[in-house]
Amino acid sequence: MTNQQPPTKKIKMFSSESLVNAIPFEVWRDVICTKLGYSDRLNLNATCNEFNDTFLDYKQKFLKKHAIHVPQDVRTIEKAMELVAKTVDPTEKDPLRIVLDKGVHEISESDYPGNDSDSDDEFVADYYKKLHITRSHITFVGKGNDQTTILGGVDVRNQQNVNFEELAITNPKEDRFGLYFGGTTANVLKCAVKECGWTGMSVNSGSTVTATQCEFMDNRANGVSCHGKNTKAILNDCQMHHNGTGLVAFFHPVVDIHGTKTDIAKNIEGIYADRRGKVNIHLPSQHNTIHDNVERDRVQENPVYAGPNGSIANINDDGTFTHVE
Fold first, then answer.
1. 101-117 residue pLDDT tens
2. Cα separation of 244 and 255, whole Å?
3. Which stretches within 12-133 are classed as H helix?
């Protein structure tokens, strides 16, 4: 007497084609769906309650791991941010990681309010492309700044604890920023911000940003630009080279530079401080921090506009300041 197996369940998804419908439920559940990301599962048109139950289990696991993988879970960074808006609200206790695989992740959407998708003005349609970060407590993680690249601008305003680790950011078209922070706290670790049409990293409007072991290079205007009252930037062992200006501080920001691996070289100008912009270099004055810039290493005045100058000073071990002309 042979044991009879229970009839195999079948499930209708994706298509009315008989081939698709003939796939057993267990194959969908145990084979196909294990290869799908969260967004793909979310979009499945399942009619089987048991399948929906397995999806809910998967959703709980996704929420518990607090990570979205691109392109494994969702295909693009924009889709990852959409998913965050729909399903999770990261907190300081339970932050979220968006893990970017190797390769180039292009920002493909435009947020320009006057953009008409049918317009033949390609410049207008493309000019305002940027990724808006709309949640706090998110870390974007790459596989190394020589392996993972974000192509396009990243705009972070009025958020807390938004971080970037081990990736490159480039935004090469004219007047483009790589990273823009406004009213935000952020950390940037082991990143390269390069070949931007304007400024590599812009810190504004009372932001506090710490960059560690980062490289800002080949940006048309500035490697790093800091602007506004209550704006603070802490640069640890960072390199700024082959930019228009390596570091700019104007209208009251405070920039603190630390680390013997700091190197500001081969820009047109090294550091430009103006309108009470303050740059504190926590290294001995004899340390070769700023050198070999094409025109000037340190600029503490504005020859065009009358007004208070900025300050660039080395902080000595005893707390005194050394101003190097």
1. 999 999 985 544 433 33
2. 19
3. 18-21, 25-27, 38-43, 49-65, 77-87, 122-127
Helix, strand or coil, per DSSP, at residue 17: coil
**Per-residue DSSP letters for 264-310?**
EESSSEEEEEETT-EEEE-S-TTS--EE--SSEEEE---SSS-S-B-
Listed residue (158, 199, 164, 161) closest to 178, CA to CA: 199
What are the backbone angles phi and psi of residue 3, rounded to the nearest 5°? Answer: -80, 130
The three-class DSSP label of residue 36 is coil
Domain ranges (residues) in the chain:
9-65, 90-322
DSSP β-bridge partners for residue 201? 179, 224
CATH topology of domain 90-322: Pectate Lyase C-like (2.160.20)
Q: For residue range 68-92, list pLDDT tens digits in order.
A: 899 988 889 998 898 888 777 899 9
Which residue, among 69, 219, 213, 250, has the nearest Cα to 153 in the 3D structure? 219
Is residue 183's pLDDT more than 80? Answer: yes
